[in-house]
Design goal:
This protein is an alpha/beta fold and 399 residues long. It folds into two domains: 165 residues, Phosphoglycerate kinase, N-terminal domain (Rossmann fold), CATH 3.40.50; 199 residues, 3-Layer(aba) Sandwich (Rossmann fold). It is 35% helix and 17% strand. It contains 14 helices and 17 strands. The strands form four sheets. It has a six-stranded parallel beta sheet, with helices on both faces. Strand 12 and strand 13 form a beta hairpin. Helix 1 crosses helix 2. The radius of gyration is 23 Å and the shape is elongated.
């Protein structure tokens, strides 16, 4: 596992300035934050630093302003919501470096918090410009990264600062890295991976990496259709990347060579139309008709996969098994999620899940509380599943 310093390694930081990279890229509607999950994620880090008497400057990006200032993408818009979660007044600083930031620090008391302006208003952020990073670092005494969701980007505030100041992982980052290490870096075997979603092409690197790491690879979603087609099964009008059947066969051969069992459904739920509560039926995969669309795994397949999980000690999950947003095509995802949650709750399974659709599917199944760890990171979680080094994490270990 990556070695990194945490907030427990901090000495006396009374009156010191902490530059803390957080994720404030929150969903908004009509000027209001609609989901404060990402704000609540960094609350333990900020509270720890405030209790230690540091002055806390929050660094974050919001949207994609591409190096231009934009009033609709200013972080001033989220100050109220952050105040509500943290339960204290927050200062907003309309710059990220320079004299205005220095003056603001001068009027802050120990244990107070300020939010600096959107880091992506400045071209130096995404360019990871050394001079830009130095200008930000000039106002800080140490750096804390608590934004795993942005750790796959080598930007000034996610990577550059870690080389210029003493660098630490925040509480959310620390929890994420420990959970991920327990799932793939040093897991307890047997390990199962559930990989779902629409397209094999978007998860090629994940599948190729996982077959050498896990004992059971469970493939669902539209991706399963491509693998079924590779086995010579007619999948009718189903979503399927026919041009990738050779790739699917190659992945299955690699799995075979690594001693990894690939699980494909043998019964599926089909419909003539893809819409909510469309007439559907469950058939054997060899009985799919020319005008059928496969939209979920069948009940027998879901039950068999549940039995596989009962033999496992570790589970990594990314992507739903069917078109879960559209009932009744959510049943296999919900059934398997409930099995995984029950096994996790009784301590026989360590379950780590991540990615936007996955978080939504597990919330829909009502099991988020019982999984061992659910990552809200999208791209960073996927790149971790691909076995890639994440610049924001690597910089912490280098530091």
């Amino acid at each position: 596992m990556t070695q990194f310093k945490t907030l427990d390694d901090l000495g006396d930081v009374t009156g010191k300035v902490a530059l803390v990279r957080v994720d404030l890229n929150v969903p908004m509607r009509d000027g209001d934050v609609t989901d404060d999950t990402r704000i609540r994620a960094f609350q333990p880090t900020v509270e720890t630093l405030c209790e230690k008497g540091a002055k806390v400057l929050l660094l974050a990006h919001f949207g994609r302003p591409k190096g231009q200032k934009s009033s609709t993408q200013s972080l001033s818009m989220v100050v109220g919501e952050v105040e509500e979660v943290l339960g204290q007044e927050i200062m907003f600083v309309p710059e990220i470096a320079g004299d205005i930031v220095a003056q603001s620090i001068g009027i802050m008391r120990d244990g107070e918090v300020a939010i600096l302006e959107n880091s992506r208003f400045y071209p130096g952020e995404e360019a990871n410009d050394a001079e830009f990073a130095k200008a930000i670092a000039a106002n800080g005494d140490f750096y804390v990264n608590d934004a795993f969701s942005a750790a796959h980007r080598a930007h000034a505030t996610t990577e550059g600062l870690a080389h210029l100041l003493p660098a630490y992982a925040g509480r959310a980052m620390e929890a994420e890295l420990k959970a991920l290490a327990s799932a793939l870096d040093n897991p307890e075997h047997p390990v199962a991976a559930v990989v779902g979603g629409a397209k094999v092409s978007s998860k090629l690197d994940v599948l190729t990496h996982l077959v050498s790491k896990v004992d059971h690879l469970i493939i669902g979603g539209g991706m399963a259709n491509t693998f079924l087609a590779a086995r010579g099964i007619d999948v009718g009008k189903s979503l399927c990347e026919h041009e990738l059947t050779d790739t699917a066969n190659d992945i299955m051969e690699r799995a075979d060579a690594s001693g990894c069992t690939v699980h494909l459904p043998y019964d599926v739920v089909v419909a003539k139309k893809f819409e909510a509560n469309a007439p559907s039926r469950t058939v054997n995969v060899h009985e799919v008709e020319v005008d059928d669309m496969i939209l979920d795994l069948g009940a027998s397949a879901a039950e068999a996969l549940g039995d596989v999980l009962k033999t496992c000690r570790t589970l990594v999950w990314n992507g739903p098994l069917g078109a879960f947003e559209t009932p009744p095509f959510d049943e296999a995802t919900v059934a398997l999620a409930k099995t995984a949650a029950a096994l996790s709750k009784d301590g026989s399974l360590t379950s780590v899940a991540g990615g936007g659709d996955t978080v939504a599917a597990l919330a829909h199944a009502g099991v988020t509380e019982d999984f061992s760890y659910i990552s809200t990171a999208g791209g960073a979680f996927l790149e971790w599943m691909e076995g890639k080094d994440l610049p924001g994490v690597a910089a912490l270990s280098d530091a």
